[in-house]
Amino acid sequence: MSNLQLLQQLKQRINCSSPVALQLLKQTDNDLAKAEQLFHEQNLDFIQQQANCDRELAEKFYHRCQQNVEEAIAQATGWILHGRISKSVITTADEKYSAHPHRLCFILTARDKNDSRIMDIDTIEQTYTIIPIEDVWEYLYNKEVNVFDFHDDFSPYFDNDFSLEQIDTLVKNLQNLTHTDPKVMKFYQELMNWLINCKKFAHHLQIYGNV
């Protein structure tokens, strides 16, 4: 079989340019099956690298996206991001459950100076978190405790913007709280730590009451 025939057959099997097909054939001594396998292995390696995921996840989305590498990278990255968002919960509960959109909660996000949400794979834990509404009503916002009392326009049902200075005040209010339950004190400390870390990234903070 001529080199041209090999090239044409390989391009019928896989979606690639002629230069790529020639290189694959060269690397595999004109073995069509090995060239095809190498093509897919290289694509999977690239997906793993770009999406920062394991091989199993790369293969899952590579096949789901019908070997479209760009789409597989986008879906794998989105999957990882969603998983990390679901774990970004500050709560007194023993287990941090998934942050589904319909769950009643406070959503806290760091915002940039254009009021866009700051959130990516590298900073998710520092720039996004949720607090289940049970913890809010019990430990942050009720008749006895209101850590937001300095914010005149604060509403638990809408967006609330906090400047960096107001974040400092919020942290101080949390520092002044005491409770006999160690889990609650841990909850306050985790929230304070998140707010302090948030300031490293944020122009301001937004708290939205999904209630």
How is this fold's topology laid out?
Blueprint (H helix, E strand, L loop, with lengths): L2 H11 L4 H10 L4 H20 L3 H10 L4 H18 L18 E7 L12 H4 E5 H8 L18 E4 L1 H12 L6 H17 L5 E7 L1
Antiparallel strand pairs: 1-2, 1-4, 3-4
Helix pairs in contact: 1-2, 2-3, 3-4, 3-5, 4-5, 8-9
What's a concise summary of this model?
With 211 residues, the chain is of the alpha+beta class.
Give an overview in words.
The chain has 211 residues and is α+β, with helices and mostly antiparallel strands. The protein has two domains: 3-81, no CATH class; 87-210, 3-Layer(aba) Sandwich (Hypothetical protein yfbM fold). The protein is 52% helix and 11% strand. It contains nine helices and four strands, in the order H-H-H-H-H-E-H-E-H-E-H-H-E. The protein has helices at residues 3-13, 18-27, 32-51, 55-64, 69-86, 124-127, 133-140, 164-175, 182-198; strands spanning 105-111, 128-132, 159-162, 204-210. Strands 2-1-4-3 form a four-stranded antiparallel sheet. Helix 3 (32-51) crosses helix 4 (55-64), helix 4 crosses helix 5 and helix 8 packs antiparallel against helix 9. The radius of gyration is 25 Å and the shape is elongated. The relative contact order is 0.11.
Key features of this structure:
211 residues; alpha+beta; Hypothetical protein yfbM fold; 2 domains; four-stranded antiparallel sheet; 4 strands
